[in-house]
Amino acid sequence: MKKKNNNLTSFADHLDEQYGNRGSEAREKYEQEFEAFKLGVMLQELRKEQGLTQEQLAVKCGTTKTYISRIENDASDIRLSTLMRIINEGLGGHLKLSVDILP
Description:
mainly alpha
């Protein structure tokens, strides 16, 4: 029989405590930064799966190694047209977008 640990906090509760409830300014800022972080990690993983260096990817999609590095390290906002070029020309993929409307 498992004991329930009442000292545990769910991740959602932790986020509420640290950044406020969804819709608050601080929480929205956190959510946006987290999405940018995830995008950078995703691009880095795709690049590495294809055995490409940042320099090689930059050459393939017409940008610079520094810019690729900044995206992967969440230090730069990225334009949609640039993201599409990196995915299409640099990685040979296709970008799909979705939108979730929150209640």
